[in-house]
Amino acid sequence: xxxxxxxxxxxxxxxxxxxxxxxxxxxxxxxxxxxxxxxxxxxxxxxxxxxxxxxxxxxxxxxxxxxxxxxxxxxxxxxxxxxxxxxxxxxxxxxxxxxxxxxxxxxxxxxxxxxxxxxxxxxxxxxxxxxxxxxxxxxxxxxxxxxxxxxxxxxxxxxxxxxxxxxx
Length: 168
What we know:
Elements: E1 6-8, E2 15-17, E3 22-24, E4 42-43, E5 47-50, E6 54-64, E7 71-80, H1 82-90, E8 103-107, E9 122-126, E10 135-138, H2 144-151, H3 155-166
Parallel strand pairs: 3-7
Antiparallel strand pairs: 1-2, 4-5, 5-6, 6-7, 7-8, 8-9, 9-10
């Protein structure tokens, strides 16, 4: 494991010292590039619909970094029912969306750094202020990702993510 990291931020393009504190998936696991040509499928940075039957929102699983006071985040996709997806879409630019109760969903991003699959973990999607990604809360199980979300991780674990994801 390397001791030091620096990285170019995907959001601001500036170089930051230390390992990145977030990684994300560009699309849910079921998305195929050919779907972009279909009228019943769409992928935006925030929402996805596949064949008019599968609906997803992009959100953040936040994990406290216990020894730094920072927060690490996985950018993930969660499937929603058609009804909840339509409601979320309708309220996307509405400041009142913060009052929405959580939406149930299934995690639709495979995070390869966990020994057990992360696909189809039960989640709750918590809508945030306009312009902010929803927060994703995992059902409190013994899955390592759910345990990390509840208990937090260390900067050494963040460096493990960086070593695995940035250096292959």
